[in-house]
Amino acid sequence: MFRFSRIEVINIETIKLIKGTDLTQSNADLIEATDDDNILVIDGNSNAGESVTSTGEGWFQEVDQTIAAETYHVYSIGSSSLMVDVDIVQYIT
After folding, report:
1. What is the pTM of this model?
2. I need a surface site. Which of 10, 24, 39, 90 has the fewest CB within 10 A?
């Protein structure tokens, strides 16, 4: 499992998960890692076993968005937005 809080990341916009990566992150991690827009996009591959976990944060699921033929589930808290590729297993609350 990869815990987002264990690395220092500055001004990223997109994370590409590969080959069964499990990413655990919080809204605080998102705010710290992104620019002032506080938008994080997480891409992955279908059938590769990737997952994203962000539980107990109070995420609100918005309308899905499609960008360059990829569809994303969109979650928000205040000014933060988390966009997760629909191909990735998601545990987001």
Report:
1. 0.87
2. 10
pLDDT in tens, 28-40: 989 988 888 999 9
Q: What is the C-alpha separation between 55 and 59, in angstroms, rounded?
A: 8
Residue type, 25: Q
Q: 28 in helix, strand or coil?
A: helix
Q: What is the number of structural domains in the chain?
A: 1
Name the H helices within 16-85: 27-33
Q: Is the pLDDT of residue 1 over 60?
A: no
- Inter-residue contact 80 to 30 (CB < 8 Å): yes
Q: Are 37 and 55 in contact (CB under 8 A)?
A: no
